Amino acid sequence: MKTQIYYEPDADLTLLENRIIAIIGYGAQGAAHAQNIRDSGCNVVIGQRPGPGHQAALGDGFEPLTIAQAASQADLINILLPDEVHAEVFEKEIRSQLVPGNVVMTCHGFSFHYDLVRPPAGVDRLLVAPKGQGHMVRGEFLRGGGVPCLIAVDQDSAAETLQLGLAYAKALGGTKAGVIQTTIAAETETDLFGEQAVLCGGVSSLVQAGFDTLVDAGYQPELAYFECVHEMKIIVDLLYSRGMAAMREAISNTAEYGDYVSGSRVIDSQVRQNMKDVLADIQSGEFAKRFMDQHTDGGQELATFRQQQTDTDLNRVGQQLRAMMPWLEPDD
Question: Which of the residues are catalytic?
Answer without folding.
Answer: 108
